[in-house]
Amino acid sequence: MKTRFSALVQLKKDTMQKSERALERANTDLNSAKKALDLAYESLQDIELPSSGAVSNFLAHKTLLESTRLLIRKNQEWVEFTQQQAYLAKQQLQKDMIEYEKFKYLEAEELKKIQQAKEKLQAKELDEIALMGFANRKLV
User: Fold this and answer.
1) What was the pLDDT predicted at 88?
2) Which element (helix H / strand E) includes 140?
3) CA distances from residue 131 to 22, 50, 75, 125 in whole angstroms, order as listed
4) Residue 107 neighbours by CB under 8 Å, 6+ apart
5) What is the DSSP string of 21-64?
6) Which of 27, 78, 95, 116 lies at 20 to 30 Å from 132 by C-alpha?
7) What is the pTM of this model?
């Protein structure tokens, strides 16, 4: 049965589902960022420093270490950014869920009122039928 809140409930449900998908994407991005950070740390651990050799080898390893550290910093920033995005998506989902539940409750209350009005009308009609039947028996 449709009420004046039915369209709003559907709209809020769609909004809530959109927020759920956004949170899933944010969590996926966060997991990707964490994996990239872990891989950067592993690559830093895999770099072996030369103990002897030409100065150019030392400079090459120094450059490699610097670029790996820079990659780690960038990945840390990416993790922080995706954590913030996941937090914001979670907050938005909570707000959307509250709005959805609010309008769902209002729709349920409206349905209760409609049902009570129907039951009241039905009881009134039954009373009228009973009165008509009682009046007809007296006339006969």
Assistant:
1) 97
2) none
3) 62, 107, 82, 10
4) 3, 5, 6, 8, 9
5) HHHHHHHHHHHHHHHHHHHHHHHHHHPPPPSSS-HHHHHHHHHH
6) 116
7) 0.74
Q: What is the pLDDT of residue 138?
A: 66
Q: What is the rounded (10 degree) CA torsion for 131, 134, 136, 137?
A: 180
For 103-137, b where at least 16 C-beta lie within 10 A, e where not — what string? beeebeebeeeeeeeeeeeeeeeeeeeeeeeeeee
pLDDT for the residue numbered 140:
57
What pLDDT does residue 139 have? Answer: 61
Residue segments in the chain with a per-residue pLDDT below the cut of 50: none
Q: Can you state the angle between helices 6-46 and 55-139, rounded to 10 degrees?
A: 160
Domains of the chain with CATH codes: 7-106 (1.10.287.1700)
Spatial distance between the Cα atoms of 32 and 16, rounded to a whole number of angstroms: 24
Q: Is the dihedral of CA 88, 93, 94, 99 positive or negative?
A: positive
